[in-house]
Amino acid sequence: MGFLFKSIDHVQLAAPKGSEEKAREFYQGILGFQEIEKPEELKKNGGAWFQTESIQIHIGIEEPFGPAKKAHPAFSMNNLSAFINHLEDKNVNYQKDDKLPGADRIYIWDPFGNRIEILEWTN
């Protein structure tokens, strides 16, 4: 074909207008992502961008807003049990799921209701 996809550059999730501070509290304060600066020409659209390691999440403002309840990003991590302890310390709800063979996984929801899958491969 002459081309090859290399990786996912970023995942965009939607949020309601004026929700940038809540996004910072969750993605920085809870998940530990760092906010990265948006290009100047995109700042007028609102929202915020976050990054950790090779993962970028862009929070985009959408009106009317509706959270992604089924569609979701899935992040693989090491030491899911330590992350669960962190969520419990921060009073963040999560849902355990045992339906994926070879993985421990949970679902969390950002402050806007977007579902996020977090998993640790066990094999």
Summarize the biggest pleated sheet: 4 strands, mixed
Total domain modules: 1
CATH architecture: Roll
What is the fold named in CATH at topology level? 2,3-Dihydroxybiphenyl 1,2-Dioxygenase, domain 1
The side-by-side strand order for the widest beta sheet comes to: 1-4-3-2
- Tell how many strands the DSSP assignment holds: 8
Helix content: 10-25%
Q: Give the rounded overall mean pLDDT.
A: 96
Q: Which radius of gyration do the C-alpha atoms yield?
A: 15 Å
The coarse silhouette is globular
CATH class: Alpha Beta
Beta strand %: 25-35%
Offer a concise description of the structure.
InterPro entries: Glyas_Bleomycin-R_OHBP_Dase, Glyas_Fos-R_dOase_dom, VOC_core. The protein has 123 residues and is α/β, with parallel strands linked by helices.
Structural summary, described in words:
By secondary structure, this protein is α/β, with parallel strands linked by helices. The protein has one domain: 2,3-Dihydroxybiphenyl 1,2-Dioxygenase, domain 1 (Roll). It is 20% helix and 33% strand. It is built from three helices and eight strands; from the N terminus they run E-H-E-H-E-E-E-H-E-E-E. It holds the Pfam family Glyoxalase.
